[in-house]
Amino acid sequence: MYKYLLFDADNTLLDFDTAEKQALRETLSASPLGFSDEIHSRYHIINDNEWKRLERGETTREKLAVERFVRLYDEFGMDGNEYGAATAKQYTDNLAHQYQLMPNAEKVLDTLSRMGYKIYIVTNGITKVQKSRMKNTPLEKFVLHSFISQEMGCAKPSPVFFDKVTEYIGDGDKSKYLVIGDSETGDIAGAVNAGMDSVRVTNGRDVQTAATYTVRELTELYNIL
Ligand SMILES: [Mg+2]
Hints:
Blueprint lengths: L3 E4 L8 H14 L7 H19 L5 H15 L4 H16 L9 H10 L3 E6 L3 H9 L9 E4 H4 L6 H11 L7 E5 L2 H11 L2 E5 L11 E3 L10
Parallel strand pairs: 1-2, 1-4, 2-3, 4-5, 5-6
This protein binds magnesium ion (MG).
């Protein structure tokens, strides 16, 4: 019954947690601040706080990307205004060459594409980072197109984002689409808003979800498709 599979990228197909950890280590090691476990854990506290500010509408995604490093320098007694922007840019560059995959991602996309499903990516990431990462993973050959929020000017969970996806694909029948992702607020809420069915990928956790289906990891998609 489904024809088009709209996969989220980070922590659904690509292992963002590992990518982030590695990119941060590379970035901070080469920065005036240096890398330590203390600085690393401080970064996460600041980053979480900035994301909460974004949800409350107190900052923008672009400001957040720089401000988290400005604050990190400030907290360790260095001039964030002097170093923050350069470190933020370096972090984006380093993140763009992290290609770690979630378990079985390649095998599952291979199988699903052989079964005849049309596979797309729907991601709220930064265009430069996501394009570079997808291009350098073995997943690229299975993906017909990547829809990236930054270049579309709208983001999940907005129905505008999903309208643009169906418009591009050229099939407005929502019952043929299945959204697959790990984020309740982005992927699943987006699918609900768009009138599409969805699969919440829990990555082994127990969660409450409004999704049509729940899987603990990607191979369980075979039970649905
Ligand atoms: Mg995700």
